[in-house]
Amino acid sequence: MSIVTLTLNPAIDQTIFINNFQLETVNRAYDLKSHAGGKGVNVASLLAANGHKVVATGFLGDQNTELFDKLFAEKQIDDQFIRIPGQPRVGIKISDQQTQRTTEINLPGLTPTNEQLDAIRATIKRLAADDNQWFILAGNVPPGIPSTIYGQLIEIIRAAGKQVVLDTSGEALRYGLAAAPTIAKPNLAELEQFVGYPLTSEQAAAKAGRELLSHGIKLVVISMGEHGALFLDNAQSLVAIPPRVAVQSTVGAGDAMVSGLVAAQTQGLDLAASARLATAFAAAKITQLGSNLPAAEIVEQIRADVVIRPCNAQLDVLQRGANQLKGVPL
Description:
By secondary structure, the chain is of the alpha/beta class. 35% of the residues lie in helices and 25% in strands. Strands 5-4-1-8-9-10-11-12-13-14 form a ten-stranded mixed sheet, sandwiched between helices. A four-stranded mixed sheet has the order 3-2-6-7.
C-alpha cells in the first residue's frame, strides 16, 4: 500500500542565505542551495524518508528536472508525474539565520492544457482504484487551472472509498473544503480568508474549525502562529506547542506537519498522539535544509517535548494571519 501525493505546481526551491537581510539595499549572500520542491513533493520526500511507500504525481515541466529525478530515485518514490512542456517554476527563499526568518518569492508556474487536466483526473482515478488508502493534495493551483480542481479530485477519491488530506489556500481551498476531505490543514490566515472575518481567539478559531467538521471533514488542523496549532475532531479540541529548536530553514514546516499527520493516521494514533507526532515533524524539519528530517532519535526527542493542552476558550489574542511560532512555522 502506498501513499499518493499530488503536486500541481512543483518548484525548484532556491534558498539564499543572507545574514541581516534588508530591503532596498545591497545584500551579500554567503550560500545558495537548490532542492526539488512544491508542497506535495516535500510531503512525498518526508514520508518516504520515514519508511512509507509513496507515489508522487501532478504536473512537472519536462526541462531541467534533474533535481526531481535525483530525489525520486534516492528516496524510491514512484514518479507518476505528467510531464508538460517547459521548466518547473522557481521558488526563491531568503533565509536569514541571525533573525531566523525566511522570506519567500514564488513564481507562478506552468499552465497545463485541458487534455493534461483530463490526464491528471484519470491518473487519480486509477490510483484510487488501486491499494492506495491516503491521498495528499497539497499546494497552490497553477495559472489557468480552475479553482474547482481539488474539489473534483476529492470527489473522485472519496467515491473510491479512500482518505484525502487537503492543504491549499484561497478559492482552491474553498472548493476543496466543499467536497469534504478527510483532513483539512489551513493556517490561521487561510481560515480567516475562508470564513471572511478575523479569528482573534482560540475559541473563534475552534468554532470556525468545528464548522468544517459539521460538513463532513473528520479532522481539522489550524496553524495559529506563535500560539501553536489547533487540532479538532468531533470529540476533542487540542493545542500542540512545539519546543524551540535551532532553525536552519523554515521552508516546508507545514508540509512536514501534513506528513506527520498522515504517518499518525497510518499508525492509528489518537488525536493527542497525532498532534504530538505532526508537530514534532514540523519542528524537526526546520532544523534541516531541503525536504529531510533529522535522525529518528532527534525527532523522537522533539516529540517528547511537544506540549499538548486542551483548547483554551479564554485565550483572546491571536496573531492574525501569523504562520510562525517564533521562527517555527507550522
